[in-house]
Design a protein that fits this description.
single chain; 352 residues; alpha/beta; 13 strands; binds nicotinamide-adenine-dinucleotide; binds thymidine-5'-diphosphate
């Protein structure tokens, strides 16, 4: 792979992936990052990359549904691989605004697949980044494997499930060389503060209420974002074409336990505040409709075939993450635009 088209590279995982590719791997080709720059996309997530790699990093503000623009970029940069992150990614927004998810996650993936189909002979790989949420909810026991039937509950997970099906169909029908990864919940630097972990960190730092949905007993399997990036790169290099790989953290935690850990660490890292303990800020609010109870990944296929396991423990990863948010107040004030404030205000009204 010499010239990789990365979609959604200005978002949370995409920007971490591009940073990882340039700083931690022996990849010496070009990255062309296309991103529509929705509220979740922020070019500052890649600050310094263009300066450090002027001939190897390129950015183009484009919607992935714009096939003619994509075709031009594909030819200009002699693209031979696609790594597809671009998506609307927040379950709560998919409940209030499902249309955006159909557009970006389903039509967008379709459009990229058409590009791949038209250029099949020039393409080494189309890697599609997906989620464990396509499998629906687990009960108290068991794990999702690569053969678990799809059973999505939210417009977000349904749109990601559709995109996975399209990838598989183009691989089988047209021979597009594709791989899919389904990963559990990520956390780490550059995550937009609408998702559980960054929202709780920022609200704790700012002495704002910590809104826990329902009773806080829902379980997610947490993975540090750089471990996800390592897994994607391992699959892109050595994964078998046409295959799906589950990626997980082996780290199941209830939401309330996550919030308590964050409170304790913020108390420890910012000891001189007037309002410690931060646990006093925890507020139980109305539950999310269709809230999946539990996700947990069996990632033994990835471990056995590609020798991947998570390197970061939750304890080390969450402390690093909290320190990053404490040290990056400029980034935080910039992502918290008017749109963010409006969304948070609406969330508060809806959950009262
Ligand atoms: P994010 O919301 O932080 O970033 C998404 C990026 O895609 C943004 O930069 C946005 O501007 C861009 N984008 C959205 N629609 C676009 C369009 N139509 N055209 C071009 N660009 C567009 O999301 P993330 O958390 O970084 O997730 C990246 C991918 O990983 C998604 O496909 C998501 O489903 C998947 N995933 C996320 C997690 C997680 O915990 N965050 C876990 C598993 C899988
Ligand atoms: P989230 O970060 O939105 O990821 P996902 O829904 O994709 O798993 O939410 C993680 C869990 O945290 C989920 O069970 C919902 C819960 N949650 C809260 O309790 N409060 C919040 O403010 C948010 C954003 C999420």
């Amino acid at each position: 792979m010499k010239n990789i088209l990365v979609t959604g590279g200005c978002g949370f995982i995409g920007s971490n992936f591009i940073r990882y590719l340039f700083s931690e791997t022996d990849f010496n080709g070009r990255v062309v990052n296309i991103d529509k720059l929705t509220y979740a996309g922020n070019p500052e997530n890649l600050a310094g990359i263009k300066e450090a790699f002027p001939n190897r990093y390129f950015f183009n503000k484009t919607d992935i549904c714009n096939l003619s623009e994509l075709t031009g970029l594909f030819e200009t940069f002699e693209i031979d691989a696609i790594c597809h992150f671009a998506a609307e990614s927040h379950v709560d927004r998919s409940i209030t605004n499902p249309g955006d998810f159909i557009h970006s996650n389903i039509e967008g993936t379709f459009c990229l697949l058409e590009l791949a189909r038209q250029n099949k002979n020039k393409l080494e790989l189309f890697h599609h980044v997906s989620t464990d949420e396509v499998f629906g909810s687990l009960g108290k026991s068991g794990y999702f494997t690569e053969t678990t039937p799809y059973n999505p509950s939210s417009p977000y997970s349904a749109s990601k499930a559709s995109s996975d099906h399209l990838i598989r169909a183009y691989s089988v029908t047209y021979g597009v060389p594709a791989t899919i990864s389904n990963c559990s919940n990520n956390y780490g630097p550059y995550q937009f503060p609408e998702k559980l972990i960054p929202l709780m960190i920022l609200n704790a730092i700012e002495d704002k209420a910590l809104p826990v949905y329902g009773e806080g007993i829902n379980i997610r399997d947490w993975l540090y974002v750089e471990d996800h990036c390592k897994a994607i790169w391992a699959i892109m290099q050595h994964g078998r074409r046409g295959e799906t790989y589950n990626i997980g953290g082996g780290c199941e935690k209830r939401n309330i336990d996550i919030v308590n850990i964050i409170c304790e660490l913020v108390d420890k890292l910012i000891p001189d505040t007037n309002t410690a303990p931060k646990k006093n800020l925890i507020t139980f609010v109305k539950d999310r409709p269709g809230h999946d109870l539990r996700y947990a990944m069996d990632f033994s296929k990835l471990k056995n075939e590609l020798n991947w396991t998570p390197a970061e423990t939750f304890e080390s990863g969450i402390e690093k993450t909290i320190k990053w948010y404490i040290e990056n107040t400029n980034w935080i004030s910039r992502v918290k635009s008017g749109e963010y404030k409006q969304w948070m205000k609406q969330q508060y009204e809806d959950r009262k």
